[in-house]
Amino acid sequence: MQQGTIFIVVAPSGAGKTTLVNALLNADPHVKLSVSYTTRAPREGEVDGKHYHFVSRDLFQEMINRGEFLECAEVYGNYYGTSQRWIADQLALGNDILLEIDWQGAHQVRRLFQDAIGIFILPPSLEALENRLRGRGKDSEETIQRRLAAARDDISHVDEFDYAVINESLDVALDDLLAIVRTQRLKLLRQAERHRDLFSELKGGAF
Ligand code: 5GP
User: Fold this and answer.
1) Which of the 8 DSSP states describes residue 48?
2) Where in the sequence is the signal peptide annotated (predicted)?
3) Nearest C-alpha to atom 12 of ligand 1 is from which residue?
4) What is the pLDDT of residue 139?
5) How many CB atoms are closer than 10 A to CB 105?
6) Residues pairing with 120 in the sheet
7) Is the CB of 35 under 6 A from ligand 1?
8) CB of 154 closer than 6 A to ligand 1?
9) How many angstroms is it from 72 CA to the middle of ligand 1?
10) pLDDT tens for residues 157-173?
11) In the prediction, which pLDDT does 71 show?
């Protein structure tokens, strides 16, 4: 029985997932973020080993062949994968793990870990999503419509998740996320594993 929980956070782009996840990681040091491997090129400001491990397609394929990924998927033409070894190490340390992956990866992980918790981040309205996707107005209408269609496709998978967090206000959405994490930590089996001595003392005691 493991002490930690795997949390899978999925969101369509434009739902504000990254800001929310960073706020959660700052607020709760016991939640560790998995850094994925990807074949896509780094965006401006992205740091190798921090935002992603940026690798070539050849190396990614070798890693697949060696069975190094817990899950991997192609998302909009690039490959993304979660390190099997890192997850195993973090679970052995009793840490909670956060996977920021797409719905396909979420499927794969939940097949392997039935007690992994799926959290879907939703925008407060279609209009808000569209405004966020339009960003600073630098993209063409065609690009924006493509992103919107992709976001709607992602949202069509919301029913496959345990929790839905609506990101209208960052503070409220962060509180919601923290509540989900805390609830899982208080599950009886997790508590019994974490406090084995206490449980055996009390159960072997007077009541
Ligand atoms: P981006 O390239 O914008 O950072 O991410 C594109 C999509 O890939 C997002 O939906 C993101 O959650 C997903 N993604 C990032 N890392 C992984 C991963 O390791 N596995 C899977 N399946 N999806 C990932």
Assistant:
1) B
2) none
3) 101
4) 81
5) 23
6) 10, 164
7) no
8) no
9) 9
10) 999 999 999 999 999 99
11) 98
pLDDT at residue 206, rounded to an integer: 55
φ/ψ region of 137 (left if φ > 0, alpha if ψ in -120 to 50, else beta) reads left
Buried b (16+ CB within 10 A) or exposed e, 145-159: eebbebbeebbebbe
Place of tokens 């992103």: 147
Measured distance CA(155)–CA(59) in Å, rounded: 31
**Overall average pLDDT of the 14-43 stretch:** 95
Q: What is the pTM of this model?
A: 0.93
Contacts of 200 by beta carbon, 8 Å cutoff, 6+ apart: none
- The tokens describing 21, both together, are 């996840």
49 CB neighbour count, 10 Å cutoff: 8
In ligand 1, the atom with minimum distance to the C-alpha of 69 is: 19
Is residue 40 lining ligand 1, measured as CB closer than 6 Å? yes
Residue 163 tokens, joined: 């929790």
Please state, rounded to an integer, the average pLDDT across all residues of the chain.
Answer: 94
What residue spans define the domains of the chain? 6-34+96-203
- Of ligand 1's listed atoms, the one at least distance from the Cα of 13 is 10
Beta bridge partners of 119: 9, 163
Could you tell me which of 49, 60, 153 has the C-alpha nearest to residue 102?
153
Tell whether domain 6-34+96-203 is in CATH 3.40.50.300: yes
